[in-house]
Amino acid sequence: MKSPVRVAVTGAAGQIGYALLFRIAAGDMLGKDQPVILHLLEITPALPALNGVVMELNDCAFPLLAGIVATDDPNVAFKDVDYALLVGARPRGPGMERKDLLEANGAIFAPQGKALNAHARRDVKVLVVGNPANTNALIAQQNAPDLDPRCFTAMVRLDHNRALSQLAEKTGAHVTDIRKMTIWGNHSSTQYPDIHHATVKGTAATSLVDQAWYRDSFIPTVQQRGAAIIKARGASSAASAASAAIDHMRSWALGTEPGDWVSMAIPSDGSYGIAPGVIYGYPVTCKNGKYEIVQGLEINAFSRERMDATDKELREERAGVEHLFARK
Ligand code: NAD
Ligand code: LMR
């Protein structure tokens, strides 16, 4: 058996937390041979609820759960952590865009970035789920000047999974028949779900669906899926978001499948003409705990326009939060 790793989860008493912690403790994220110590962060008023979650975690008697730290202090929560899933933030309600949460949630991610900088392991893998996820990840990263900027990522895996599901349904295939789906850009309604490189059972996806369906149905459905869930459930997605967070971390830690890639929002290095520094959804492969952008993809005019629109939104979001940055 391996020695335990430390996994921090913020917002641990929230609805995503409730769908996430039990799967991490069961080994779904890091493997059935990897014991974990959970570090759970909540705000002070939520500590009694968090205590209930801790009681339930203990009651599961998970073989891989090697310890639990429950706290309202980020300096305790991030001490020596190998992984940090930053979920704790306010969700949006009906009629809101995710960026409407920037002011409220931006204030959470600057102090958490500082605490990660001071206490986390130097190779910590950070996934921001709390919205607006890409720019919150940037805020945390810019408050952690001693950590490698590439430690900070944001979640577009839920969008990736939604795109797989929509394309599978349309083509009468199963999600496992699809390779090389891509979500470019922001986890927002400007995101660009791109099927130009995707295959279904080895056949080019673009040859199986017509352009009108792709443009007028598939793209808006994936872009608006979060809002559709809020409308239907009266609360934002939780189990699917937790599942995508597990997928994101598992791919990063344990690697991607040969011949396939996944979508992760990572610090742009300027690849594909995107503004350097913004946390942008890219197709990536992962190996030995490192991610790498898939290079050399042909980008047509249709894609270019959409990739630039979501880049523009991320640059605008960045301009609105620069006052929260410590890293110069
Ligand atoms: P929730 O309100 O059920 O839970 C959020 C929890 O975070 C609460 O328990 C709250 O007490 C806690 N919290 C607030 N501030 C905190 C802080 N400073 N430190 C620690 N904990 C804090 O919300 P939820 O449904 O679990 O959603 C959480 C976030 O995830 C929201 O911002 C939501 O929009 C976002 N989300 C993102 C995706 C994605 O794909 N990126 C998908 C779904 C939801
Ligand atoms: C989602 O995509 O389901 C989440 O980001 C929640 C939201 O606000 O849409």
Automatic annotation (TrEMBL):
Annotated InterPro entries: L-lactate/malate_DH, Lactate/malate_DH_C, Lactate/malate_DH_N, Lactate_DH/Glyco_Ohase_4_C, Malate_DH_type2, NAD(P)-bd_dom_sf
Pfam families from the UniProt entry: Ldh_1_C, Ldh_1_N
Stretches assigned to the Lactate/malate dehydrogenase N-terminal domain: 5-150
Residues reported in the UniProt entry to bind substrate: 92, 98, 131, 162
GO MF: L-malate dehydrogenase (NAD+) activity
Active site (UniProt): 187
Keywords of the record: NAD, Oxidoreductase, Tricarboxylic acid cycle
Binding site for NAD(+): 11-17, 105, 112, 129-131
BP GO terms, sorted: malate metabolic process; tricarboxylic acid cycle
Catalytic activity, EC: 1.1.1.37
Domain Lactate/malate dehydrogenase C-terminal: residue ranges: 157-319
Top-level taxon: Bacteria
NCBIfam families in the cross-refs: MalateDH-SF1, PRK05442.1
HAMAP family: Malate_dehydrog_2
Family: Belongs to the LDH/MDH superfamily. MDH type 2 family.
Protein name in UniProt: Malate dehydrogenase
Organism of provenance: Mizugakiibacter sediminis
Gene from which the chain derives: mdh
